[in-house]
Amino acid sequence: MALPTWDHPEPLAVDSAPVPEYGAGSLADVLPTLAAGMSVPDMTAAIPELTPADRNCVFLIDGLGWEQLRAHPDEAPFMTSLLASSRGGTGRPITAGYPATTATSLASIGTGLPPGAHGLPGYTARNPATGELMNQLRWNPWTDPRAWQPHPTIFQLADAAGVHTAQVSSPTFQNTPLTKVALSGGTFHGRLSGEERMDLAAEQLAAGDRSLVYTYYAEVDGKGHRFGIDSDPWRGQLMYVDRLVQRLAEQLPPRSALYVTADHGMIDIPFDEQHRIDFDEDWELRAGVALLGGEGRARHVYAVRGAQADVLTCWREVLGEQFWIASRDEAIAAGWFGPRVDERVYARLGDVIAAARDDVLIIASEREPKESAMVGNHGSMTPVEQLVPLLQVRS
Fold it and tell me: What is the pTM of this model?
């Protein structure tokens, strides 16, 4: 096999990574901006392009990145017609936050905090109290949710300020720890079908003079992981969710704003050794590593005590032309996880952090067989993963 030729022979500089737009245009800034417009105390309108509304609904479509939406106008005609409305009529996207993954992004949007503050810094991360990897999407192994993420959600703060607050989602998510730490506050309404969710979200918007409603749809992401974003099943889900957005938009009560966004984008990665680097079969990458966390495009690497510097050097030598490779402190200083990282969060981050720039993955075929078999992936700071829409409909 011929060796690939790269156009960047030196390791990628840590400060060359496109850091999310924390504080002005990230997922963590959406709900504080909307809540500030409804006079919820201590909220800041961080996204200046958004104008206040008395009733606000956020519809989060899991996995629908900005670039994927723009590339599929035929499958999503209604959302395509709204592209110019994104980010308050600027026609621009916002950023998800790092890593661009569901657990992290849902915590960011729900708490109004970047990952370094809310403390869900990846798909899996080390629990410093136990030394185990914790899956923050499935909350396994169990840990106390409120100890892991103690900050109130924007929904809780809005509810306390007299705003009618509701979440409309699948009944499956009602009592999950992730929902409790990221999206609780007001009333949860579980509905199975997308159509039922849209209709009920509209009803909940109309239920108060000031309302904050959140609704969610997962299967665009699910089909992307399984079949890829260049597949008919994925396109079918995009067509379906486009109709859901239109259904909700046509039912908005007066004085309402609907915002359609996503938790991350997605990229398909080919199934070959050049694009999928198998940690479980690479003795160099395994040397000195105690735990491998995160996911294929956004890895937390936890070193054996005393081996941190050696692991960092090795990962830079092996992967530094394709990944931004940073030590924990370098990633924090560069602002990857936000302007600050709380003390309780610091040791959850990898000793070494690897964020993909090229179309590559670090899989772990033995440790993570299901994740390693996914076609569509996400997590890093590239535009295809990081940029998400903030489409707007007002009544």
Answer: 0.96
